[in-house]
Amino acid sequence: MGPPMMPPSGFLVDSIMKQQEVRALYLPPSVIEQWAIEPAAYQQAENLDFVLYSGGPLANSVGNRLDQITDVCQMYGSLEMGQIQMLVPNPGEWDYLEPNPAEECDFQEVDEGEGVYELVLHPDKKFIGQRSLAHTFPDVTNEWRTKDLFKPHPSKPGLWRFHSRTDDIIVLASSHKVWPIPMENTLAGDPLIGGALMVGNGRPEVLLLVEPRPGPQVDRMSKKEFIDAIWPTISQANANAPEYGKIRRSRIVLSQPNLGFFRAPKGTISRKPTESLYAEYIAAAFIDGTTDEQSEIGILENHWLDEAKRFIGSVVHDIRPDITLRESDDFFVAKAMDSLTVLELGQKLRLGLIRRMNPEKNTINFWLRTVFENPSIEALAKATLDAVFGQVDSDEYNSRGFNLEHVLEECVAQLPEPSGLEPELELPTEDIKVVLLGSRGRLGPYIVRDLLNDPRVAGIKCLDRGGSGQAEFQRRADELGIDVDASNARLQFISMELSHPNLGLSQNQMDEILHHADVIIHNVWAVNFALSLSSFKPEMLKSLNTVIEIANKAPSRPRIVFASSTGTVSAWAKAVAPNVPVPEEVIKCASAATLTGYAQSKHVAERLLAAAGAKLKIPISILRIGQIAGPTTIGDGGKWESHDWMHSLAILSKACGLVPSDVAEIDWVPVDQVSRIVSDITLQEKHEGETGTPFVQLYNVLHPRPIQFSVFADALQSCISSSRQVGFHAWVDHLSGLTPDKLSKEAETEKTRILPFFQAIAEEQYPKFSLEKAKKASAVMAEMKPIDQELLTKWCQQWTKT
Predict the structure, then answer these.
(1) Would you tell me how many other CB atoms lie within 10 Å of the CB of residue 413?
(2) Which of the chain's ends, N or C, has fewer CB atoms near its CB within 10 Å?
(3) Whether the predicted pLDDT of 23 surpasses 90
(4) How many CB atoms lie within 10 A of CB 539?
(5) pLDDT at 398
(6) InterPro entries under this entry (predicted)?
(7) DSSP three-state, residue 78
(8) Nearest to 477 by CA among 528, 426, 442
(9) How far is CA 669 from CA 240, 562, 784, in A?
(10) Which phi and psi (to 5°) does residue 516 adopt?
(11) Is 531 a residue whose pLDDT tops 90?
(12) Is there a single domain that holds both residue 337 and residue 273?
């Protein structure tokens, strides 16, 4: 193109079009994107019959703009196979491919549940004269896998959008997969960005390499100003990424002027060579959690509270400039922070106060705990002053936020007035209709399977957060190895919002529940032991109040089944009665709950339901569930999810080479048996409450035949080479004393998240539980066999193999 001594560029295209009558463009995406920046580009496009590109994806912002002016098409093929014939796209579908029906190709799913498909060719003799594949690889007679991955159009079958290459996939240390091409494609549309490359294989999170586009505007910017300028585009790319795949500000590395990026002749970035070129810069960014491109940390000027709020506010804004927070807003309630942004905030505070604090105290672990325990600008400012100057009374911002009794009073005050409708204490003998909040979590898919296996159940409405209910449920069930078909006619999937009135349901959806539901199962709760009690108010406790309100006004008079936790009474022995088993009844003693926001919030929930049952005459069953273990089918495709404290214990035991030998006896219940117990109790024909609380039942759901923890410790030790067993208190003390440099980043993050839980249970005498009511209500629980060492070993192997 153009003079042989000049490389192809957008400037050259612009110059040619100003001098020649050009009817069409056929160019690599990188050149089209450069041309689109030229002032006259879109005016010039008005004279084109079409713009054709190949060799990689075109930036969405550029393609969408050109599509409004002229036809935008893409040629698909390769040196090995030649061109694959595609149909001309309709307006608005420029970034989709539609193979000619005569082509011998299909799209095959590569990772079940991900919705990503590889284009596969099936060689045909009729194409020998026009396709190079038959000549380049004459031995290929069955299929040719292109390694190009596509996603289907959400509503138009036959249309496929390029997604990435099989060798582009980033596999994080957590085993999560990140598909970088869609995000890099969004970033490529920013006029300030010359190139963008996401990396992170084997790392805890992704990192973005950015090559600024040369020009006077960029040349005048500092690194902070440049990142500020491109941050809206990064936020746009993050919008469609999973939490583990989002780009953080502290994970952005700018290219070096003397290095640049490696590129193929067609202008696309060569991924692996460029990543190797910047290996040292990437490694440095993960060593201390910062990059030299990170915006400057402010300093704490004095010991006044207003100054501390300003300091904290500026650091928070630097991390999340797209969100405006009031000083009292809870970071987690406002969805301003997740585990990765909390880590970034902790790192910035540590660096910002490095000259003011004792180095032994100024650790990332200290700041992560401080952020989790004080999740607002105001609370964190007070905690910071106390840490630096030792002058603020920590009781003012204690680690559990709102007082439990105060939160309970607030929730009880929101209970509606009695509807006057007569309670229904018996379920119908057939045609039972169930509403399930939380079908896609750890336990939900198993509950759905077991309810479907009962012929009395006519239908289940599955209410979950987020869209794509049926597809997401099927993906989740397949991921857990559960044999259940989401297309079953008895299943209906509905999107809900926990904090919204009526759970965000439409009036028609609400009418269906109000007039036909027989049971509402509340099985959705944020499992995070680091969150304060106040963080559970706006969604979890609010949703429970909403379910109570629905049951109260529903003519169908549904019973409520609530999945609670033994954490609500784990301190029973210390706070109430050391030698008496925890009874199967609601305990009205706040100090009986473990000192975590999670346990305290479920303690509030139990007492809220007890108040609702007494006031509104709603039949309520509370299942106080102990530790949910992995499935008994772990050798047949099932797996134990990695959110539980035992998994954390295994990770940290492997990291430090020590295994605790004496935590507490193992009364865990495999998840596939918990779900059957839930089903048994949910579908009891007659609801029989207790004397004094006739509308409220409570069941302790733990293993009726526990075994000693030493059996588990032996199984875990057998999976960790060069490890030895120590007492639990010694294990916790050793873990508490480990500095960040002694652990991997993953283990340090896990330690920060779970250590308060271990410290709490180390100080508690774990109580015994009465199980008679639960065993009477569920034959599955009554007949449960002890967990054997073979199953324990399988679980441990699954946790420690990576």
Answers:
(1) 8
(2) C
(3) yes
(4) 20
(5) 40
(6) Adenylate-forming_Reductase, FAR_NAD-bd, NAD(P)-bd_dom_sf
(7) strand
(8) 442
(9) 37, 17, 9
(10) -130, -20
(11) no
(12) no
**Tokens 């607030």 sit on residue:** 410
Are 268 and 31 spatial neighbours (Cβ–Cβ below 8 Å)? no
Find the helix or strand (DSSP H, E) in which 362 lies: none
Q: What is the CATH number of the domain that holds 52?
A: 3.40.50.980
Output the CA–CA distances (angstroms, integers) from residue 36 to 24, 51, 91, in the order listed.
15, 12, 19
Give domain status of residue 134, yes or no.
no
Whether residues 652 and 567 share a domain: the answer is yes
Per residue in 723-737, pLDDT (tens digit) is: 999 999 899 889 888
Which helix (H) or strand (E) is 749 found in, with range?
helix 745-762
Q: What is the dihedral of CA 197, 201, 205, 208, to 10 degrees?
A: -10
The partner residues of 105 in beta bridges, in order of sequence, read 121
CA 580 – CA 587 distance, rounded (Å):
13
More confident residue, 123 or 86: 86
3-class secondary-structure state, position 96: strand
What pLDDT shows up at residue 726? 93
- Give 229's contacts (C-beta < 8 A, 6+ positions apart): 192, 221
For residues 297-309, b (16+ Cβ closer than 10 Å) or e, as one string? beebeeeeeeebb
Residues belonging to the chain: 802
Q: Over 90: is that where the pLDDT of 164 sits? A: no
- What is the 8-class DSSP label of residue 426? B
Q: Are 486 and 474 in contact (CB under 8 A)?
A: yes
Tokens describing residue 66 = 């050109």
Is the pLDDT at 427 greater than 70? The verdict is yes
CA distances from 165 to 112, 662, 682 (A): 16, 49, 47
pLDDT tens-place string over residues 607-634: 999 999 999 999 999 999 999 988 887 6
**Residue 161, strand partner residues:** 96, 151
Tell me, what's the pLDDT at 600? 92
Mean pLDDT of the 29-52 span: 91
- Domain extent, residue 592, equals 424-720+767-800
Q: Are residues 688 and 548 in the same domain?
A: yes
pLDDT of 291 > 70? The answer is: no
The side-by-side arrangement of strands in the sheet containing 207-212 is: 193-199, 207-212, 252-254
SS3 assignment, position 25: strand
Return the amino acid letter for 726: V
- The enclosing domain of 369 has a CATH number of 1.10.1200
| 442 and 579 part of one domain | yes
Tokens of 231: 């941050």
Mean pLDDT calculated for residue range 413-423: 92
Q: What is the pLDDT of residue 587?
A: 92
Instruction: Measure the CA–CA gap between 582 and 703, rounded to whole angstroms.
Output: 14
Q: Please provide residue 522's backbone torsions phi and psi, each rounded to the nearest 5 degrees.
A: -100, 105
| CATH code of the domain in which 207 resides | 3.30.300.30
766/768 Cα distance (integer angstroms): 7
Angstrom distance (rounded) from CA 552 to CA 693: 17
* DSSP 8-state secondary structure symbol assigned to residue 553: H
Between CA 79 and CA 407 the distance in angstroms is: 66
Q: Where is the domain boundary, 74, 90, 109?
A: 74
**Is the residue at 93 inside a domain?**
no
Q: What is the pLDDT of residues 572-614, one digit of tens each?
A: 887 777 788 999 999 988 888 887 889 999 999 999 999 999 9
Q: Tell me, what CATH number does 602's domain have?
A: 3.40.50.720
At 299, the pLDDT band (50, 70, 90 cuts) reads low
Q: Does residue 240 sit within a domain?
A: yes
Do 494 and 626 lie in a common domain?
Answer: yes
Query: How many domains is the chain partitioned into structurally?
Result: 4
Q: What is the pLDDT of residue 473?
A: 92
Q: Which of 74, 102, 118 is at the close of a domain?
A: 74
For residue 767, pLDDT beyond 80: yes
pLDDT of residue 605: 97
Which tokens in the block code for residue 300? 């704490």
What pTM value is reported for the model?
0.58
- Mean predicted lDDT score pLDDT of the chain: 85
Q: Tell me, rounded to whole angstroms, the distance of Cα 135 from its chain centroid.
A: 47
Tokens 């020009």 correspond to what residue? 215
Q: For residues 552 and 153, what is the distance between their CA atoms, to the nearest angstrom?
A: 43
